[in-house]
Design goal:
heterodimer, A: Helix Hairpins, 82% helix, B: mainly alpha, two-stranded antiparallel sheet, 2 strands
Chain lengths: 98, 478
């Protein structure tokens, strides 16, 4: 009944919902950065699952290429978020010291 | 001459790379590449005016496989807005950053932002739009953080989170569309979209993500902090151009890709949210203590007009009235782009001169900075929507369409919004023209003041008096 593609798709939706929930509700910045990454992984997983064309048939390559681009973007965005978070933490400590 | 399309994206992109390699030369490299960009946009505009819509597929691939760029009237007008505002902001920025390290950080990111905007306006495929959206978002966030203060970093981080959430929503919609229709090309998707679960879900996800990025009420919570804590040239670009990119995409999606799938309730929702944005944004602008915050909340309100316009567009059946509303929306978006960048640059001059931007302490500004005060007044005329600004014509057509359609609530909202806008602009001018305790000699700092003044003149006089050709241009391309 439940083929692999649907299973992965549902898993992706589950991960995305989990990530969305935490992105909105978490206060801690680091947790929010993690949460948005999980949300991203969920969306990517759904996208990859749609590429499956059944056993023995080559999967559609386009979603794979797109998800690869998406991963590159996600890495860059995460790096930027972490850099901003570190700077914010530094400024916070400085103002606490004063 | 539609090869100009490739140059429109390539010049700022190359400029960004060269400016990053030669940080000491970055300011003139930046200005030079944006002048070249403006020339390319001018050629493209002339081509589109005479030949209509044109398409270019990069690298000689066939359409659907390669990256297709489309230049129609709407896209070229947005490119022209970007090119003009970018030039003015750049000339202003050459004198704004006193610390060479700040300047070296500003230019590559700023050119990257322009490249992303140009790519976004020309992109003809849904995934390219995602890439340009992310490029735009990342460079905008980094530019916001250039302020360096704790508030700027805090605002930048929140802006980044919101932007990522928005683009992931958009991407999820793209994934659904690709699975359902097997193509990413906007036209091909548009041909297949119908009232079915896949199209409806994709519409909701993509629109939701973009509304978050465009800061439509109540998703505007991140905008005032981000726009008011960035350096002045960045604020101008964020408010005038970057939020417009999200609106531009919603407009394109709703009118070209999803017109079959947009339910009536969707238009109702946008109309209600747009109306609340007008009222809430204008009210908050009136209550703001700082000039930059006032300008940022005014952007929230002005975006409301655009979405009210889109709601009217959806419920107006195709025909002359429909084209009129479409032209009005575009004219208001263009006018706001020029007016708001003018306002933010003028505020930047006031802030650098007075050392603060508290509205209650602006007395005597008109004596010290006559040209900049005039620029604020010109931008104000366009923001209120007084004649002869472009916004006057835009609002006029939106209001007359609402009256013809019996949408009396919208007429009321736009009326109240205009009155509130007049109140917050005159509150600033009232202080600016107030007597200062210490009389001081007027300052004419031409290199910092003329960009704001030029943008204000274009918003109020240029677009108002020159708008006659906007409608036939837009109509001819549709």
């Amino acid at each position: 009944m439940l083929d692999a593609s649907t299973l992965y798709g549902l898993l992706g939706i589950f991960l995305a919902s989990l990530g969305l929930h935490a992105t909105i509700l978490q206060r801690d910045i680091l947790r929010r950065i993690l949460a948005i990454n999980i949300l991203g992984v969920g969306v990517f997983l759904v996208f990859i699952a749609t590429a499956y064309n059944g056993p023995g048939v080559a999967p559609d390559a386009v979603p794979h290429a797109l998800v690869l681009t998406g991963i590159v973007v996600a890495v860059a965005a995460t790096a930027l978020a972490l850099a901003l978070q570190r700077r914010l933490e530094m400024l916070r400590r400085e103002s606490d010291d004063e | 001459m539609n090869e100009a399309m490739a140059f429109v994206i390539a010049t700022p992109l190359l400029g960004a790379m060269v400016a990053a390699v030669f940080p000491r030369q970055s300011h003139w490299l930046g200005v030079l590449s944006l002048i070249l960009n403006a020339v390319a946009v001018g050629l493209l505009l002339a081509f589109t005016l005479s030949q209509g819509k044109s398409t270019m597929v990069l690298g000689g691939w066939q359409e659907g496989l390669g990256i297709a760029l489309h230049a129609d009237a709407l896209a070229t007008l947005m490119l022209a807005l970007t090119a003009c505002v970018a030039l003015a902001v750049s000339f202003y920025a050459t004198g704004y950053f006193h610390n060479p390290r700040d300047a070296a950080r500003f230019w590559p990111l700023w050119l990257l932002l322009v490249a992303a905007l140009n790519g976004l306006f020309l992109a003809g495929d849904l995934f390219n739009l995602y890439v340009t959206l992310e490029l735009l978002g990342l460079s905008a966030v980094a530019l916001t953080a250039l302020g360096g203060k704790r508030e700027s970093i805090d605002a930048a981080l929140r802006y980044l989170m919101v932007g990522l959430l928005g683009s992931l929503g958009y991407l999820a919609g793209v994934a659904i569309l690709y699975t359902a229709f097997g193509t990413l090309d906007m036209q091909q998707v548009g041909d297949q979209v119908a009232v079915d679960p896949a199209s409806e879900t994709a519409l909701v996800l993509m629109t939701g993500g973009l509304l978050l990025k465009t800061a439509l009420f109540p998703l505007h919570f991140w905008l005032p902090a981000a726009h008011s804590n960035a350096p002045a040239p960045v604020s101008a670009a964020l408010s005038a151009l970057v939020v417009k990119a999200g609106f531009y995409l919603v407009l394109r999606l709703w009118t070209e890709v999803f017109p079959q799938a947009v339910p009536e309730q969707g238009a109702l929702l946008l109309g209600v949210l747009g109306s609340m944005a007008i009222l809430w944004g204008s009210w908050q602008a009136l209550r703001a203590q700082r000039l930059k915050l006032l300008a940022a909340y005014s952007t929230v309100a002005q975006l409301g007009y655009l979405f009210v316009g889109l709601a009217l567009l959806v419920i107006t059946p195709a025909g002359a009235a429909h084209d009129l509303v479409f032209g009005a929306i575009v004219l208001m978006a263009l006018t706001h782009g020029f007016a708001k960048s003018s306002l933010f640059l003028a505020i930047g001059v006031v802030q650098q001169h007075a050392g603060h931007d508290r509205i209650d302490h602006l007395d005597g500004t008109s004596q010290r900075l006559p040209a900049t005060t005039f620029a604020i007044a010109l931008a104000g005329v366009a923001l209120i929507g007084l004649p002869p600004s472009g916004a006057f014509l835009g609002k006029w057509h939106l209001i007359s369409t609402s009256i013809n359609g019996g949408q009396w609530l919208l007429v009321l909202v736009m009326g109240i919004g205009s009155l509130l806008a007049a109140a917050y602009i005159f509150r600033v001018l009232g202080h600016a023209f107030g007597e200062a305790a210490f009389a001081s000699r007027p300052v004419n700092n031409a290199s910092a003041e003329w960009p704001a003044l030029t943008l204000g003149i274009i918003a109020t006089l240029g677009l108002g008096l020159g708008s006659a050709w906007v409608w036939p241009f837009l109509g001819g391309a549709a």
